[in-house]
Design brief:
The protein is mainly alpha-helical. The chain contains 11 helices and 2 strands. The chain has helices spanning 3-44, 47-54, 61-79, 85-95, 99-122, 133-145, 170-201, 205-236, 244-254, 256-291, 297-313, and strands at residues 128-131, 161-165. It is elongated and about 130 Å long.
Length: 347
């Protein structure tokens, strides 16, 4: 092969390898980002899934304490009877263990979620508030059924609006939600397309598949680290009146799906990489086994006897090549017969 063609082919191979490596890196980087966008779009932004996610928090002790303190203190303040605050807190804490509180908890979370999404989608500029009067009304009805309010003034429930999102956070939240909704669709598709192109361009596709699997596992591990780091930063920046155990329970409940996805990516990538690694030596060993021709015992004995005979005779000397055949002698040359030398017949 001419040196110029060999250099051209090697340059093209290096270029394909470089492009394949870049595509693999981009695909692996998009995997955790796509998982994050999908979690926000299909986990947090969906009302039914959000309510199902936070429903178990109604039985969390830290959340029950926060609800009891908040509602008990609020009811006592509205009734103008501060001395009833400890009693009302105990009553609300008992109420949190009933089915009625679970219903009120789900309704309050659904109302909060719908209020935030409506404000984000409609482009409102004021703070997002939620009326918790239905929850307080359920508490009062439960206390009345238990005869806990006999001889005490009726608690004026009215409207119990609570601000859940400041107006300054609506703009960034609106932009972030739009970006996440678009990214949840295109990032996974782009990652798959880049991975297929990278493996197709690679000179050694098994090695490229192994690298892709390791990259997916690394992306899953990075996603898990990001969730843990986000939890630490969230709890470190809590308001003074927000208990850390309750906030930690809420954060863990909201990110449970994201943690599961990170473990799945880690396990899937590690499994594929291990399968590629173990499948290559097994395939080589199979090819070598198939290449060896089995020898029967009869052939082995005959080969042994032939080897012994050769050893007994000693090394054979090569026969000299036969001499070349002798050329036949040339016939004597006779002068050509001329008309003058031709004998005439006698008459």
């Amino acid at each position: 092969m001419p040196p110029r063609q060999q250099f051209g082919r090697s340059s093209a191979g290096r270029l394909r390898g470089t492009v394949s490596a870049v595509l693999l890196i981009l695909a692996c980087a998009l995997v955790p980002l796509g998982a994050l966008a999908g979690w926000v779009t299909y986990g947090l932004a969906d009302g039914d899934r959000y309510v199902r996610t936070v429903a178990p928090l109604a039985a969390d002790p830290a959340v029950e304490d926060v609800v009891a303190d908040t509602l008990g203190t609020g009811l006592a303040r509205r009734a103008g009877v501060g001395e009833m605050a400890p009693f009302l807190r105990d009553a609300v804490r008992s109420f949190t263990r009933t089915d009625a509180f679970q219903v009120g908890w789900d309704e309050a979370n659904r109302a909060t979620h719908d209020a935030v999404l409506d404000a984000v989608r409609r482009g409102e500029r004021g703070p997002v508030t939620v009326d918790l009067a239905p929850v307080a009304d359920a508490v009062e009805r439960q206390l009345a059924e238990d005869n806990a309010l006999v001889g005490r003034p009726r608690l004026p429930v009215g409207h119990a609006e609570v601000a859940v999102l400041p107006a300054a956070d609506l703009g960034p939240l609106r932009k972030g939600l739009h970006v996440m909704q678009v990214a949840a669709v295109w990032l996974p598709l782009t990652a798959v397309a880049l991975a297929v192109a990278a493996i197709a361009l690679a000179a050694r596709r098994r090695r490229a598949l192994t690298a892709m699997a390791l990259g997916v596992a690394a992306g899953g591990a990075l996603l898990g680290v990001a969730v843990a780091l986000g939890r630490h930063l969230t709890l470190a920046d809590l308001p003074a009146d927000m208990p850390e155990p309750a906030a930690g329970a809420v954060y863990d409940a909201l990110t449970s799906t994201l943690r599961t996805v990170s473990w799945l990516l880690l396990a899937l990538g590690a499994t594929v990489a291990l399968a590629c690694r173990l499948g290559r030596p097994l395939r080589r060993g199979t090819e070598r086994t198939e290449a060896v021709t089995p020898v029967t015992p009869v052939e082995a004995r005959e080969a042994g006897k032939a080897g012994e005979a050769v050893t007994a005779r000693g090394p054979e000397t090569p026969h000299p090549p036969p001499p070349p055949p002798l050329l036949p002698p040339h016939p004597p040359s006779t002068p050509p017969t001329s008309p003058s030398n031709r004998k005439l017949p006698l008459s």
